[in-house]
Amino acid sequence: MSKTILVTGATGNLGRAAVEALAARGFRVKAAARHPEKLAAREGVEAVALDYEAPSTFDGALAGVDGLFLVAPPMDPEAPAKLLPLLAKAKSTGVKHIVFTSAFGVDQNEQAPLRVIERALMNSGVRYTVLRPNFFMENFSTGFAAPMIKQNAGIFLAAADAKTSFITTRDIADVAAVAFAAQHYGKEYNLTGPEALDHTQVAAMITQAIGREVAYHALSEEAMLQGARDNGMPEPAVQYMAVLYAVVRAGYMAVVTDGVEKVTGHKPVSFAEFVKDNSACWK
Fold it and tell me: Which residues contact 226 (CB under 8 A, 6 or more apart)?
């Protein structure tokens, strides 16, 4: 294939996986980040600068691009103000297909920041695909929960005993790559792993994989949010986190879909497989 895809957030868990999946399918990839010097070199991948808050970086990043894989900044209530100008610029520069990674369940709340972006994309006139993945498995291996596990042998969250159908970014990236390759225009996919697990089960699987006890501590919402503040999380993100885990506790993130298998033809990675492949992260 000769198409060029711009991947935003390419230094993040999902962005890195998307770069790999697209390059493996023969796309030319422009990997975009605020600090492109942090991106590892790879054949067929060009590192470019892109900052959502610096529109002067948009033209260079979008030059020669056929498709855009758009990843929103995490837990950011101001995401529409940052991404809508990029969507407008992508349309004006002739981008033919935009695959947007939203979040599981946002289609149930028209005021949700990511739903606002979804709606803008759907009404933009540009061919689109919307992906709505559940919580990433990588949150435990390289994301916000990893230091809790490695340093304190625990998972400290206000999730009660509710279950979540965690998904690996590798599966999300595979869906995105197929969406570009097979032109899944006008499609919306709700993406989950193959099963729903509570955090006690997650902790037990990690314990078994590393041979060291990891426990889940069900915090009150107040304790979780104060801990986030103490670790330097900005208040808007803290409030976003409060909404996310209220949704988890209500049971809405326990739904399991067949989205990954429907698009890619393979079953999504299980949490047990993920833990086995990533056990070195916690040792």
Answer: none
CA atoms within 13 A on the CB side of 100: 31
> What's the pTM?
0.96
Q: Residue 62 has which token pair? A: 């979008």
**CB 114, CB 103: distance < 8 Å:** yes
Domains of the chain, first to last: 4-133+168-190+256-264 (3.40.50.720)
Per residue in 38-49, pLDDT (tens digit) is: 887 788 899 999
Alpha-carbon span 210 to 206, nearest angstrom: 6
For residue 9, how many C-alpha atoms fall within 13 Å in the half-sphere facing its CB? 18
Site of tokens 């590892």: 40
pLDDT digits (tens, 9 = 90+) for 113-134: 999 999 999 999 999 999 999 9
DSSP 130-147: EEEE-SBTHHHHTSTTHH
What the block records as the tokens of 75 is: 């837990």
Is 90 exceeded by the pLDDT of residue 247? yes
Paired tokens of 219: 């915090």
- The DSSP symbol for 266 reads S
Confidence of residue 163 (pLDDT cuts 50, 70, 90): very high
